[in-house]
What we know:
Two copies of one chain form a homodimer. Chain A has a single domain (about 20-330), classed as Farnesyl Diphosphate Synthase (Orthogonal Bundle). In chain A, α1 packs across α4 (about 75-100), α1 (about 15-35) packs across α15 (about 320-335) and α3 (about 60-70) crosses α7. Chain A contains 15 helices and two strands. Chain A starts with 15 loop residues before the first helix and ends with a helix. By secondary structure, chain A is mainly α. Chains A and B meet through α4, α5 and α6 of A and α4, α5 and α6 of B.
Amino acid sequence: MAVVLPFESAPEASIESLVRLVQPDMERVNATILSRTGSDVTKIPEVANHLISSGGKRLRPMLVLATAQMCGYQGDAQTKIAAAVEFLHTATLLHDDVVDESELRRGKATARMLWGNEMSVLVGDFLLGQSMRMMVEVGSLRCMEILSTAAAVIAEGEVMQLAAAKNTETTEDAYLAVIRSKTAELFAAAAEFGPVLAGRPKAEEAACRSYGTNLGIAFQLVDDALDYGGRAAELGKNVGDDFREGKITLPVVLAFRRGNDAERAFWRKALEQGEADDAALETAVGLMHKHRAIEDTCERAKHYGAIATDALGLFPASPVKRALADAVAFAISRAH
Amino acid sequence: MAVVLPFESAPEASIESLVRLVQPDMERVNATILSRTGSDVTKIPEVANHLISSGGKRLRPMLVLATAQMCGYQGDAQTKIAAAVEFLHTATLLHDDVVDESELRRGKATARMLWGNEMSVLVGDFLLGQSMRMMVEVGSLRCMEILSTAAAVIAEGEVMQLAAAKNTETTEDAYLAVIRSKTAELFAAAAEFGPVLAGRPKAEEAACRSYGTNLGIAFQLVDDALDYGGRAAELGKNVGDDFREGKITLPVVLAFRRGNDAERAFWRKALEQGEADDAALETAVGLMHKHRAIEDTCERAKHYGAIATDALGLFPASPVKRALADAVAFAISRAH
């Protein structure tokens, strides 16, 4: 006998239903974000909102709202927590752009290009402080622990990345350790707040954290692949930015390991000695295709995506559960 | 009839008794600091400890320990709180040095000169995260509120300072607003933890906060004066650094306002247009002496110092109360 399981059908590669399901909550989050970037100090609201209002997908706050829904949370703490997560994320982006000397972010000039590195560092610090204050208002020690741990772990990940920068011999494991910290940790934290707020059992907390971690890894890997094959419009930055900055990402790790001596000499010259002009970028992309480095990066992303989807297994079918699975498919599909 | 009040005699300009009274607690703070700069990520402990172990006076953690003692606190949360305060302070120094492009701090090369701006930004972020984590472990929402508010307010103060930079028409009030946020707020927070931990009445919390605020202002004003008249050794930075960076501090505000048109043209050229070489510094110091700008900055510092000392009035006489008053006298005396 056929059983109809409308919400357990194959996921769609779209975040539309996720966006729709959290819409009412997200409006409150946006209002909170707007009010909490307020400061009597000139420039702070302007610099903060430049990035916050620049059309990011707000994936991280959405994870807070969605997992809270999925876990049946009935309170209203998710609004401040989601805003705090977005603030922490924005702070790290402001600081990243200074560290990476980036000129473009989400298709717009970075704050540091408009107001200088100084302002980017300090407004980032302000947002870090505000995110912690919002958590204090929520009043849950456990939630504060999750966010403050994420803040420290993200910074550790960035330092690891800095140390690995320009080192073409970085292993895939070392690279994964970097993105687990700098990207996946905040996805994990965001997804964990829902079950924590709802007072759900440890197993559900762990499941949501695993979902977030693996979605975050998949997301970052696809980003890394897109940097060698996407278009600036969907990337929000220039193709080849990672290459020009000497960043070691998984496509490079794979192409380097699979290459011959001459190719490795090329990678070293390009990434370690900075000979990374447009001609070199073309060569780099050619070598990646030769060794299927971009395709396999996307394959790896699928692997983590599958773990993320499976992590949701112990939750009963619901529209929001399905929307979370769709979000994984969406993250992966950006590669095509 | 004469009453002997051994602890209410005139304060000595020394922090020796303060250092001695908090010594056993401070050893635990130092051990905590050392263990919490630990990270598996190479470089983080090295960069963090470069500044933390560089012989700062640890005045802020001492305030936590001393006010806890003065208020009769019997627990042990002050250790982690004092360490968290020092971490927040260190994080802001790391970021400040990037913002100000400073080369020297406490007489040593700044972290940014040794490991680069990137590392300074990120290790600062790591320390901010760690300081919040330590507060979470303490588990007092009120204490977390104090620290996270301080973090946001300090960043606001730095942004205000950035906006005021190179603006010779900054008023004394505007300048005071800057140092209230960027310097005095953390002194205030540090001093407030004691009565909060001890569960003392609001009036004592307010008294300690007032002590900290005004000590912090006095401290900063004397620092500002020393920049135009101290020696590199006691300053831990080069004489004239503020001048060369175009920083508007109280000595400049006073000399500018008291000067004639030709002098104001000089100040504008030096600080707004960056013509701040050694000859200009000599002229600047000359104008300051002419207008008693340095002396009056120290007079202002005395005013705030007096408020700080008076704020302690409602506490009964005790060795630690006296040591806190001595610390104010010490802060002021550095100017001579």
